[in-house]
Every structure is written in structure tokens, then in C-alpha cells.
Backbone:
């Protein structure tokens, strides 16, 4: 498990309850997305030695589309 991304199973029901209460009171939909795949891809770029992300993504624009495909919708 990645540092700083550990889950606390005991806190999950409370978190879900707060999310449901919030979503009941808004007039627009709220999307809960999992960006962990994007995080992992960015971390791999760092490990591979990429120091200028803006330039890298300019040089390799397909990477942006690949990372967008990694975003997972968890709940709407």
C-alpha cells in the first residue's frame, strides 16, 4: 500500500454517511473519481527521471490521453 494512501475501514461508514448527506442536498451531481492510476503513472514518470512534466507532456501528448483513461468513476 502506498504511503499516505492507506484506508481506515472503521472510518468508511462515517465517510459514506457524510457523502450521502451532502449528495442529498445539492442540485447537481457530484462525481467521486479514483485518480490512483494517474497518481501511479505520474510517480513512474518521476522514477523514470522526468523533471519537467509540462515539457514531457508537450513532447508526448498521448500520455495525457492515456492518463485520462486511467480515471475511474467510483460513484455519481
Residues:
Amino acid at each position: 500500500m502506498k504511503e499516505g494512501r492507506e484506508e481506515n475501514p472503521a472510518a468508511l461508514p462515517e465517510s459514506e454517511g457524510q457523502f450521502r448527506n451532502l449528495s442529498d442536498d445539492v442540485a447537481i451531481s457530484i462525481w467521486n473519481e479514483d485518480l490512483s492510476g494517474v497518481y501511479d503513472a505520474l510517480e513512474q514518470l518521476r522514477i523514470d527521471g522526468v523533471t519537467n512534466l509540462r515539457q514531457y507532456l508537450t513532447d508526448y501528448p498521448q500520455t495525457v490521453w492515456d492518463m485520462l483513461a486511467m480515471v475511474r468513476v467510483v460513484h455519481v
Remarks:
- The chain has a mean pLDDT of 85.
- The first strand starts at residue 32 and ends at 34.
- The beta strands are 32-34, 72-75.
- Residues 30-76 form one domain.
